[in-house]
Amino acid sequence: MNNNIGVEVEETVRDLRQYFKTGKTRSVTWRKNQLKALLNLIHENEDAISKALYQDLGKHPVEAYRDEIGGVEKSAQNSLDCVEKWMAPKKSNIPLVFFPAKGELLPEPLGVVLIFSSWNFPIMMALDPIIGAISAGNVVVIKPSEQAPACSSFLANILPHYLDPNAIKVIEGGGDVCEQVLLQKWDKIFFTGSPRVASIVMSSAARNLTPVTLELGGKCPAIFDYPSDFKMAVKRIVGAKWGVCSGQACIAIDYLLVEEKYSSELIELLKKFMRKFYGDNMMESKALSRIINKHHFERLCNLLKDPLVAASIVHGGSVDETNLFIEPTILLDPPLDAEIMTEEIFGPLLPVITVNKIQESIEFINSRPKPLAIYAFTKDATFKKKIVSETSSGSVTFNDTLVQFLCDTLPFGGVGQSGFGRYHGKYSFDTFSHEKAVLHRHLCLEIEPRYPPWSKFKLEFLRLAYRLNYFGLVLHMVLHMLGLKRHN
Predict the structure, then answer these.
(1) What would the pLDDT profile of 444-453 be if each residue is shown by its tens digit?
(2) Is 215 a catalytic residue?
(3) Are 236 and 293 members of one domain?
C-alpha cells in the first residue's frame, strides 16, 4: 500500500461491492469453483505454508499440518460437499389459519465481509472463515495479522492466483491500515484476537450497525478429577498445553484444578510426559513453537517476575531471549490475585490450583469471566451434569482437550468476554448468511375478521386465532364465509 492508505481501502471496498451486485458470487458454480481452488492451493503449497509457519512461529511441519493445513483442507472439502444443500431453500410449516399458504427460509449472502485473522494460527484463522464466507456467496477482504509477516505475505501473494481476485482481496499492514479498514461500511465483520482490539472493532462496527462475530479467548480451565485412567488424561493435558503453539492458543488450558492430595502425583506425571514429548533438554526441543515476538516474550517473562509467582515454580522457568523461547513451566498454587491468574496467559506456563474437593472447582470457575472452553477429566456422571448446568462457557469437553475445535458438526464460539457468534461447518455458512423468511399466500380466501368495522364476533374470532388450534379456527372461518353461520 502507498501513503494514501484510506483511498486504496475505499476503492477496494467499492470495487468489491460493485462485483457483489453483479450476482456472480451467488451461484452454486462460483462457490464450488472457489472451494475447489482453495483445495488446490492447499495441496500445491503445503511446503510453502509450512515454511511460512516455521518462520513466524517455529512450528514443526507436523504441527503445522495437524493444526492448520489439515484443518483447512477438511473444512474446504466439507463445505464443497455440502454447500448446495446448505444454500437450498427450506420449507417452513405455516399455521392453518393462513391457509392456503406456504413458507420457506432462503439463505442469502450478507455482502461485503471483513475478516481479521490472528497471528497464532495465521493460516487456519484466515482461510477457515473465508471458506464460510465463500460458501455463503459473499465477497471478502481478509486482513492478516502483521505479527505473522511471513504468513501474511504468503496469503497476499498466493490467494489472487487461486481465488477470484474480484471477490477475495487481501489487505496487509499494521495499525494504520486497520484504522482505515474500520472506517469503511461492511456487511459483516469477523474478528479473531484479543478483547482489547475487539472492543475497538465493535465500536467501529456500531457506527454502521454492522453485525460482528468475535472469537476471543479467556482463561480456559481444566478440571482433573483423577480418573482411573489418569495417565491418558495427563498425556492429553501435556499435549494440549505445550504441543499446540506452546500454549499460544485461545482454547489452550490456562490453569489446572486438582484436589490437593493428588497434586504431587499429578505434577510428577506432567513432568514425565513432558520429557517423553519434548526430551530431557526442552530448551532444545524441535517440537515446541517459539513465542511470536519480543513483546509477547517480555509479557510472559513479566508474569514470572513477581517473587511469589516465581516461588511457586515447580518445573521449568528457563528463557532464551535470543530465540524467543520459554521452557514449559509448571507453577503450584501461585497467588490468585497475581497477573498470571487474572489475565489470559497465552503461553507455555501452567498454574496448578489445588482445592479441597474437586466439586469446589465449579465455584472457582464461576468466580472468573466466562471462558471459551472448559475441559474436565472425570467419569462421574453426576459431576459432569453439574459442570454443564452450573457453569457457562463457549464449550465443554470431557476427557479430552482442543478436539472440539476440529469437530465441524459442533459450533465453535464463545460467550461473554470470550466472544460471541459461532462458526465451523454449517455454522460458518450460517454466520455469513441471512436466512430470509418468505411467505406465499393466495388471494382466493380472506380472513375477514382482521378488518373493520369491528364487532363482538370479530373480537372472539381473534381471541380464538391466538389461543386455540388452527384447524378448528379455519373451519370456523370457512363456514362463516360460506354463510352457514350467522353472527351480528
Answers:
(1) 888 888 899 9
(2) yes
(3) yes
